[in-house]
């Protein structure tokens, strides 16, 4: 694939009542990525879920892009879900 915009999605569900803590953890980790994405959004949803989306301009689908790590297992109810998308215009 040629250079495009790749969007990485990272989603985790916190242990009940710890959604704010997970959100702050994700905010801090997304600020520490090895390079700056073109765009970044943090979102939250019911059930203490947190979503982080990062946009990477000029990337290809197979590129090695900086991603958020797994939080401490005591903070989440299940493994993190990760998706990679190519923006289409």
Short description:
This protein has 89 residues and is mainly β. It has one helix spanning 19-31; strands at 4-13, 39-45, 49-59, 81-86. It has one domain: Alpha-Beta Plaits (2-Layer Sandwich), CATH 3.30.70.100.
* Inertia-based shape: elongated
Whole-angstrom Rg: 13 Å
Distance between the termini: 15 Å
CATH topology grouping: Alpha-Beta Plaits
- Please count the beta strands (DSSP E, at least 2 residues each): 4
The CATH class: Alpha Beta
Sheet bearing the most strands, described?
Answer: 4 strands, antiparallel
Assigned CATH architecture: 2-Layer Sandwich
Strand percentage: 35-45%
The average pLDDT is 95
Question: What structural class results from the helix and strand content?
Answer: mainly beta
Number of helices: 1
The neighbouring-strand order within the major sheet is: 2-3-1-4
Number of domains: 1
Q: Are there runs of 5+ residues with pLDDT below 50, and where?
A: none
Protein name: ABM domain-containing protein
Organism: Streptomyces arboris
Describe the structure.
The protein is mainly beta and 89 residues long. It has a single domain (5-60, 74-87), classed as Alpha-Beta Plaits, CATH 3.30.70.100. The chain is 15% helix and 38% strand. It has 1 helix and 4 strands. The chain has one helix at residues 19-31; strands spanning 4-13, 39-45, 49-59, 81-86. A 4-stranded antiparallel beta sheet has the order 2-3-1-4, covered by helices on one side. Strand 2 and strand 3 form a beta hairpin. The two termini are 15 Å apart. It comes from Streptomyces arboris. This is ABM domain-containing protein.
